[in-house]
Amino acid sequence: MSPTLKRIAAGLIALAGSGYGAHADTVGKVGVDWVGNDIKIDAVTDPEVTGVTCHVSYFDRGVIDRLRKGNWFEDPSNNAIACQQTGPITIGDINLSPKGEEVFRAGLSLIWKSLVVTRVYDKTNNTLIYLAHGREVTEGSAKMAISTVPLYNQPVTWTNGQPK
Q1: Number of domains composing the chain
Q2: Is 15 inside any structural domain?
Q3: Phi, psi of 68 (to 5 degrees)
Q4: What band does 37 get if pLDDT is binned at 50, 70 and 90?
Q5: Can you give the pLDDT at residue 108?
Q6: pLDDT tens for residues 64-110?
Q7: How are strands ordered across the β-sheet holding 38-46?
Q8: 33 in helix, strand or coil?
Q9: Is 163 part of a structural domain of the chain?
Q10: N or C: which terminal CB in the chain sees fewer CB atoms within 10 Å?
Q11: What pLDDT shows up at residue 62?
């Protein structure tokens, strides 16, 4: 491979693996087999909601598995999420529509697939909902996980005032 192609490939890999919005720290890595496949656990903080931490787990394929299966640039869409209050909650300028707002994205393939965490506010039940799902350019994925953080009877600060 030419030096130019190597630089382009390195840039695409970095872009595909970069997060969006929220910050994530890998806090756990559990080996699941002898070929180097792991389950990684990231702590994700919402940039507009302080005091809530989501832990997202996902499958990270090892080199041997990538070589054996021939799909070198992609991880499965399988994931799980659990979100909890981890401090005083302050809610900034969040999207209140039923579509919610993407707060985190990490690449699961070179270009086509991402792990996404979307936040939705359930006004009726005064609850933050976090949905982890795969997003693919060519076809959607039905693999998803959901976690909720109830705000009822919690001391919550809304920087723009609580929605009525």
Answers
A1: 1
A2: yes
A3: -65, -40
A4: confident
A5: 44
A6: 555 566 655 555 557 789 999 999 999 999 999 999 999 987 644 44
A7: 23-31, 38-46, 49-60, 79-91, 156-158
A8: coil
A9: no
A10: C
A11: 62
Residue 13 confidence class, pLDDT cut points 50, 70, 90 = very low
Q: Which two tokens stand for residue 162?
A: 């609580």
Q: Model pTM?
A: 0.73
Which pairing describes strands 156-158 and 101-107: parallel, antiparallel, or unpaired? unpaired
Domain extent for 44? 3-158
Distance separating alpha carbons of residues 111 and 159, to the nearest angstrom? 36
Inside any domain, residue 164: no
The answer to whether residue 113 is domain-embedded is: yes
Structure tokens at 74: 């992609």
Give the C-alpha separation, 43 to 57, whole Å: 9
**The residue to which tokens 């005064």 are assigned:** 126
pLDDT at 116: 82
